[in-house]
Each structure stands twice: as C-alpha cells, then as structure tokens.
C-alpha cells in the first residue's frame, strides 16, 4: 500500500477525534445523569418531612402544623405547604386509576432534577389519604449537581486536552522512534561503524519511514563497502608497489655504481611497466567502485570481439591450446566494447596463466533465452571451493597451503607483466558495469570427482 504512513496517521487522528467526541458526549451524559438525582439521604430526609407533617396534622391539628411549617421554612430557607387536591372531570369523562395513582402537585423525590433550570423544583410527598400533599421547594443544600459546572469544565476542556496530548504522544512515538533510531545509526556510521543497519530495528513496520531505513541501509552498505574496499585497496597497493620499487632502487644503485648492462635497462623498463599497469588497474577499479557507472555506449558483435581477444592470446601463449567455440554472430546493444573486452581479456589470460603448457583453454559463446553466456574453461589445478568467491577480491592470491598436496597453486588473475591480483576483480566490476554477472566454479573430469580446472561464466544481456 502506498503512503502507508499517511494512512496510519490519518487513522490515528481520525479515530482519536471520533473517540474524543464520543467519550466527551458519553461522559457528559453519564455525569449529567448521575448528578441529576437528589442524593439518597436527602430523599429520605424529604420523605421524613412529609411523614412528620402528616403526623402533626393528624395529632396536633392545623395550628400546630402551621407552626411546624414556619419553623421548617425558616430552617431550610425555602417554601413549604400542605395542600389538598381535588380534580373533577368534565363532559362525562372520568379519571383513570393510573392517573389518580400518579397524580401529584409537585415532583416525586426520586425523579430527575433539571440542572439547567434556575429555580429549584417543588417536591411532593403525598399523605396516606392520597388527597393531601406535603409540598416543599427543594432546599438549596439538597439540590443535586453542585459540582456539575466543574465536571462540565473538566469534560469540555481538561478531558480533550488530555486525549489530544495522548494522541500527540502516540503520533510522536510512531514517527520519531524510527527517526531517532535512524539518527543514532547515522551518528554511529559517521563514527566509523560501517556495519550499522536500521531496517532490522523496525521489526514488522512497513511504511515510508521503513523505505527510508532501507535506503539508508543500502547507502550504508555501499558506502561502507567503498570505504573498506578503498582502505584495503590502498593497503594492498602500497604493499604490492614495494617489490617493483625495491627492484627499481636496485637498478638505480647499479647505475650509480657504473654498472649499466642491458639487463639493468630491461629491468627498469619492466618494473616501470609493471607499476604503470598496476596503478592504472587500481585507479580503474577505484573509479568503478566509487561511481558504479552504467556503460551503455556501444553496439558490437560479441563473437568478433572474442575472436580478436583469443587471437592475441594465442600469440602471447604459443605453448597452450586455445579452443574457440563461437556462433556466426553475437550482437549486443547498449554495452561497452572496451570494458567488456578488457574484462574478457583478463579472464582469458588468467585461464592461460593457470593452464600448464600443452594443455587447453576453451572459450565458448552461447546464446540463451535472456542473453549470452561466455564460458572460459581452463585445465589448471582449480581453486578450493571455499575460496571461489574470494578470487574476485583485489590482490587476492590462493594460499598454497590450502590446495591439494599434489597440485601447485598459482597467483589468481594477472596481466602479461606478472599478475598482481587485480585482473579478476577489475573484470567483475567491468562486467557489472555493462549489466552482466560473473560466476566461477571448478569443473570435473567426466565420471570422476577429480577437479579438471576452473571455469568462469560471464552472463550478459543482449541489451541493457
């Protein structure tokens, strides 16, 4: 679902608003309902007044009742009276039993009192004869809803304020908690913790902030890998440069001592070329890693490109057999002939370097459903299975102690000037830049578990 965070916020705000109005209305009605009835002890007291008025009238007469009423009115600061009721129907109509039983001159003490009326209601306590009624205007001290204005104020102002604060806190937690984790991860990343990730900290959450966390994780992974790779590349490059620099120093010492032979000059040329190729490859690899370019400028025939590369390789390695299996044509659109040619050349040279004299290297081009597959298979000693992924790392070399005792491990990758472990690493990045992928695995002798050499497959799209 798009805009998941928007929908979540909308749901929280809308639901919170509806809940707010519902709670306010429900509490207001409930509070008003509970505060609209005379307190039970006051009801008992009013009923007691009525019973006392009936007793005084029956035992002491109206004069005594008059004195008692005056004292009651004075004590309660209200009006009170004892009256009789006589209702006569007209036009031949009659009074129903229900009416006669429920007829009152005032309100029953159990009835609801309207809190919004200014004047206190008249309460009616009927005598036993049903015709005489004790009437009293409800004393102010007995009026219910004394604290209703304060309750009304709390319901209308305090309660909405609390609920809105709660909703705001929920929204803040929902939005800011992942942002705080992202901010913490950013600070850790800036401090050099390149393995920090945010997406896993968000659990099952899935919204725009999750997408931001995924973007951050991708950025952190790529940037962290770039920094680590550059540090490793710089360290390895400085290490690899020591050997040709040492040889150059030795050649310079020979010149200073007056020993100027053809071998010394050849050594200078060789080491200079080695260093130039090493620096060029390192700069190219660093550029590909940093920029992550998409090389899509050329349309060319892949079969023709492989043919030219293999022809040059046969000239450089006359003591190896190079078998070429190509279709008549292999058109590729939107690629880079230069980058792909350099990558294939490095892989083919790597295969020839690891193939003993008299053995064969096979280069084949096959058209598949979604592109091309270039296969380069040698007849060398292969690579230990757990190191197959590492041969594409810059300056990686297979440790001889890890290979079979009957085999001799040679440096992985390399160019015609010796091999520094950059060839396959550079080839993989160049192939990735044209939309392809490279895979390495050991191939075996048919019907046997014995390794017959290394095979590297290059998978390329016909158009990227």
UniProtKB/TrEMBL annotation:
Residue ranges of domain HAMP in the record: 173-228
The entry's protein name is histidine kinase
Determine if Magnesium is one of this entry's keywords: no
Task: Give the EC number(s) listed in the UniProt record.
Answer: 2.7.13.3
Q: Which organism is it from?
A: BD1-7 clade bacterium
Please state every residue range assigned to the domain named Histidine kinase. Answer: 236-464
Q: Which keywords does this Swiss-Prot/TrEMBL entry list?
A: ATP-binding, Cell membrane, Kinase, Membrane, Nucleotide-binding, Phosphoprotein, Transferase, Transmembrane, Transmembrane helix
Top-level EC class: transferase
Q: What is one term from the GO cellular component aspect held by the record? A: plasma membrane
Q: What membrane topology was assigned to this protein in its record?
A: Multi-pass membrane protein
Main location per UniProt? membrane
């Amino acid at each position: 679902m798009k805009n998941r965070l928007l929908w979540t916020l909308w749901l929280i705000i809308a639901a919170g608003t509806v809940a707010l109005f519902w709670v306010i209305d429900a509490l207001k009605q409930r509070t008003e309902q509970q505060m609209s009835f005379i307190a039970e002890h006051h009801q008992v007291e009013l009923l007691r007044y009525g019973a006392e008025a009936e007793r005084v009238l029956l035992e002491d007469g109206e004069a005594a009742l008059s004195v008692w009423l005056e004292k009651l009115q004075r004590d309660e600061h209200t009006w009170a009276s004892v009256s009789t009721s006589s209702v006569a129907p007209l036009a031949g109509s009659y009074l129903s039993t229900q009416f006669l039983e429920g007829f009152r001159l005032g309100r029953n003490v159990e009835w609801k009192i309207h809190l919004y009326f200014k004047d206190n209601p008249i309460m009616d306590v009927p005598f036993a004869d049903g015709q005489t009624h004790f009437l009293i205007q409800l004393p102010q001290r007995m009026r219910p809803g004394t604290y209703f204005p304060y309750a009304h104020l709390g319901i209308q102002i305090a309660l909405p304020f609390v609920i809105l604060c709660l909703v705001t806190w929920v929204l803040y937690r929902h939005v800011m908690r992942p942002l705080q984790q992202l901010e913490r991860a950013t600070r850790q990343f800036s401090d050099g913790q390149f393995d920090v990730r945010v997406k896993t900290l968000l659990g099952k959450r899935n919204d725009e902030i999750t997408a931001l966390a995924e973007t951050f994780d991708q950025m952190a992974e790529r940037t962290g890998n770039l920094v680590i790779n550059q540090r490793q590349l710089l360290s390895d490059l400085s290490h690899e440069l020591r050997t040709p620099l040492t040889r150059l120093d030795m050649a310079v010492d020979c010149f200073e001592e007056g020993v100027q032979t053809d071998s010394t000059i050849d050594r200078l040329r060789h080491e200079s070329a080695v260093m130039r190729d090493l620096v060029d490859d390192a700069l190219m690899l660093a550029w590909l890693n940093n920029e992550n370019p998409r090389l899509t400028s050329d349309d060319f025939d892949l079969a023709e490109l492989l043919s030219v590369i293999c022809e040059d390789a046969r000239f450089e390695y006359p003591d190896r057999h190079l078998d070429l299996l190509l279709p008549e044509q292999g058109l590729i659109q939107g690629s880079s002939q230069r980058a792909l040619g350099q990558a294939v050349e490095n892989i083919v040279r790597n295969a020839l370097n690891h193939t003993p004299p008299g053995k064969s290297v096979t280069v084949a081009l096959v058209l598949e459903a979604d592109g091309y597959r270039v296969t380069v298979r040698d007849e060398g000693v292969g690579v230990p299975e757990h190191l197959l992924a590492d041969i594409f790392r810059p300056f990686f070399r297979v440790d001889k102690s890890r290979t079979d005792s009957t085999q001799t491990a040679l440096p992985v990758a390399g160019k015609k000037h010796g091999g520094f472990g950059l060839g396959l690493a550079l080839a993989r990045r160049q192939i990735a830049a044209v939309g392809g992928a490279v895979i390495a695995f050991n191939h075996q002798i048919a019907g046997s578990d014995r390794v017959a050499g290394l095979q590297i497959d290059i998978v390329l799209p016909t158009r990227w």
